[in-house]
User: Which sequence fits this backbone?
């Protein structure tokens, strides 16, 4: 991958998945790589707060990571000049690896600036298909398929995603399953009162309505149970939302506020209709909180370490039963949470993920030049 003992040069490119890409860049830099992070200059993943994305990145990465941003609009000829200038800069960087996130299809200038060549780039596929209820962008979907077919190496976060990809890509193309990295966190005792957390971007496929449908049965057995909903997205009207035991934090949750939300929860519910994997589920594990997940996509793999309970998708009664079993039994909740925390400490850190990523580069990529 690189010459002799020289530090490998890695170019990471993304549009969305800025949090993920920043954490990976930091891990690669700590592992000895020289890293350039190429991204758009928007703050959409950080609540639209001007400068929030860059502030987060500066807090996470060290001096060995250079950040290059691309502004403007893809349809503007003037804004392509910045992409051309970046392409020239990055060509001088001479990366050993060009590693794309599947969100780059939103702006083809990122591909142009990165200097992508067939079979000479890496692609992380977070989702092999758009989630039900998310907007349809045919051009982006087609471009992502082209990237999947043209990559030299693909990373996914769940075996179920690999199986989906194998339906149309070459069986010879290396697809490596690497766990989603887990941000640092501190395990704390469970709260005294039973509480459920639904956290993250709110969309139809996340199944919030299924959880709200389950609340009546939960309250029938545990009247003191509370539900906290925290995240950005549109919440459809539901009778349970008017109950004082339900708290809604609408909008983006700042990074500084996330630990307190996790510590206040007895468990986290992932009642998804469809899923590739869940960054939320991974992120909660260091806090030693149990998970109750739907049997879709990679969610059963997420709790295969004993960190949670799997229930049928779109089944409010089964979801209620599982949540009650966790909320009513502190011993069970503690055992599940401790299993997740052990996984996070043993194999889920970003440094571990970065090490596995570098090993896969070395194993599967043909040296450049």
Assistant:
């Amino acid at each position: 991958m690189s010459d002799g003992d020289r530090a490998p040069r890695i170019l990471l490119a993304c549009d969305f998945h800025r949090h993920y890409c920043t954490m990976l860049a930091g891990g690669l830099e700590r592992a000895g790589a020289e890293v350039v992070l190429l991204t758009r200059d928007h703050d959409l993943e950080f609540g639209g707060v001007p400068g929030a994305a860059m502030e987060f990145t500066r807090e996470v990465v060290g001096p060995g990571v250079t950040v290059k941003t691309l502004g403007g609009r893809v349809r503007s000829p003037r804004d392509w000049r910045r992409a051309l200038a970046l392409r020239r800069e990055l060509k001088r960087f001479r990366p050993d690896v060009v590693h794309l996130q599947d969100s780059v299809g939103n702006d083809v200038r990122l591909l142009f600036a990165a200097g992508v060549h067939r079979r000479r780039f890496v692609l992380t596929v977070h989702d092999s298909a758009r989630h039900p209820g998310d907007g349809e962008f045919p051009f982006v979907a087609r471009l992502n398929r082209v990237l999947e077919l043209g990559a030299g190496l693909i990373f996914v976060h769940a075996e179920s995603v690999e199986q989906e990809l194998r339906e149309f890509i070459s069986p010879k193309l290396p697809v490596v399953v690497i766990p989603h990295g887990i941000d640092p966190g501190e395990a704390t005792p469970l709260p005294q009162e039973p509480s459920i957390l639904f956290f993250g971007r709110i969309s139809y496929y996340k199944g919030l309505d299924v959880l709200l449908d389950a609340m009546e049965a939960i309250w029938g057995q545990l009247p003191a149970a509370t539900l906290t909903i925290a995240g950005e997205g549109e919440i459809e009207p539901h009778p349970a939302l008017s109950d004082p035991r339900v708290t809604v934090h609408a909008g983006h949750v700042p990074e500084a506020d996330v630990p307190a939300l996790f510590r206040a929860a007895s468990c986290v519910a992932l009642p998804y209709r469809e899923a590739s994997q869940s960054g939320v589920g991974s992120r909660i594990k260091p806090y030693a909180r149990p998970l109750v997940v739907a049997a879709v996509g990679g969610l059963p793999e997420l709790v295969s370490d004993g960190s949670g309970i799997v229930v049928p998708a779109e089944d409010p009664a089964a979801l209620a039963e599982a949540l009650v079993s966790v909320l009513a039994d502190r011993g069970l909740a503690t055992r599940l949470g401790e299993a997740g925390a052990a996984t996070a400490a043993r194999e889920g850190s970003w440094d571990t993920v970065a090490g596995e990523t570098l090993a896969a580069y070395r194993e599967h990529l043909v040296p450049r030049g």
Q: What stands out?
A: The mean pLDDT is 90. Residues 172 and 295 are 29 Å apart (CA to CA).
